[in-house]
Design brief:
Elements lengths: L3 H11 L4 H9 L1 H9 L8 H16 L7 H15 L12 H16 L1 H12 L9
Helix pairs in contact: 1-5, 1-6, 2-4, 2-5, 3-4, 4-5, 5-6
Length: about 130
């Protein structure tokens, strides 16, 4: 279970997110995907990580705007945190370096659960999208 500490960190960071931050997350999406697929604690969030990246990309492109910017900002803060190798617990420390990243992702998923569900339903209805995405 995540603590309110991670949720508060996400909410505080989300208040400061700019379009530049959104652009950085989109431009670094391949690096962020690698963090989720490299094993360790983040690996259990691989599908969620892909969904989080997808909603940010669709928001940025204008394809999906039926979501509050605060939700997008919380996701951007979370993905930027995952990308940062020198966060609370540096990622170069085996396993333990990703535990804080996993806690932040879990906290974000709790915060944005309703909006993410709405996005997922929309995404599944898009042409060329399979029901498993």
């Amino acid at each position: 279970m995540t603590s309110s500490k991670e949720q508060k960190m996400i909410e505080t960071g989300a208040e400061k997110v700019t379009d530049k931050d959104l652009e950085k997350v989109v431009s670094k999406s391949d690096d962020i995907k690698k963090k989720f697929t490299s094993g360790g604690p983040l690996h259990r969030f691989i599908e969620d990580g892909q969904l989080l990246l997808s909603v940010v990309k669709d928001y940025r492109s204008g394809a999906f705007r039926k979501i509050p910017f605060g939700t997008i900002a919380a996701i951007v803060v979370t993905l930027a945190y995952v990308l940062n190798p020198f966060d609370l617990i540096p990622d170069f420390l085996p396993i333990i370096g990703q535990i804080d990243d996993a806690a932040v992702v879990a906290a974000c998923l709790i915060l944005v659960e309703h909006d993410l569900h709405t996005y997922k339903l929309w995404k599944q209805d898009q042409p060329g999208t399979t029901k498993n995405q």
